[in-house]
Amino acid sequence: MLRYENVSASYGGFQALKDVSFEVREGERVGVFGHNGAGKTTLLRCGIGDVGEVGGRVLYRGEPVESGEVYRNARRGIGFVPQGHNVFRELSVAQNLTIAGLMHDRGGIEEMYGLFPILRERRDQLAGSLSGGQQQMLALGMALMTRPSILLLDEPCTGLAPIVVRDVLHSLRSINERSRTTIVIVEQNVQATLREVERALVVKTGRLIFDGPSAELAGKENLWELF
Ligand SMILES: Nc1ncnc2c1ncn2[C@@H]1O[C@H](COP(=O)(O)OP(=O)(O)OP(=O)(O)O)[C@@H](O)[C@H]1O
Ligand SMILES: [Mg+2]
After folding, report:
1. Rounded-to-integer distance, Cα 148 and Cα 104, Å
2. What is the pLDDT of residues 10-27, one digit of tens each?
3. Residues lining ligand 1, Cβ inside 6 A
4. Can you identify the CATH homologous superfamily of domain 2-226?
5. What pTM value is reported for the model?
């Protein structure tokens, strides 16, 4: 569904991604791991066409993901939740969801409330005054309002308490199981994420050094040395 063919990516003269090849299949849940600066965000951004200098190619359903065409790529069904809480803080929960769904039918809001009941409870509260975990759920809900076929998430659990991390990861799994939305998630919470994904990728200084079942990575004794 999303295929990377010998992808490299640079910022100025610096090569952040080197000859990376893999394919995410429809309906899969994939975790992407690696040290700070390894190239995880760059890898995700290549998937939506948000990196300028790219070698090789990224294909979505067989058609190229052109760089610089983020909006068009999003319309094709690629959803992206960037690092940090991306909500309109001065607007209410309901207004955030409405804006996110403008391109589509409004019926989706009820579905999001079904998925995240806390958002229904807080529908009139300003997004900026939600807790970190609630804001993350809202950001997820907003991404889902665009009805993506594949959702790329960059560290959605940063700064959240372990129990909330489990909630968010679990919600992602339900979204995947309910609607077959393909999930690619970058996370620092390696163990918790490995329990919720089927497949793992490890990036080290711009190279893909592991691509296999998450259970295989979880079972590796030298897991931490790998990174
Ligand atoms: N806009 C940019 N300009 C220059 N260098 C960049 C830019 N964005 C990223 N880099 C560099 O590319 C490398 C990979 O960055 P990237 O953000 O992909 O790493 P990451 O694995 O997501 O790290 P983290 O875990 O800290 O989020 C880093 O060395 C970073 O400094
Ligand atoms: Mg990053």
Report:
1. 11
2. 999 899 999 999 999 999
3. 11, 14, 16, 34, 36-42
4. P-loop containing nucleotide triphosphate hydrolases (3.40.50.300)
5. 0.91
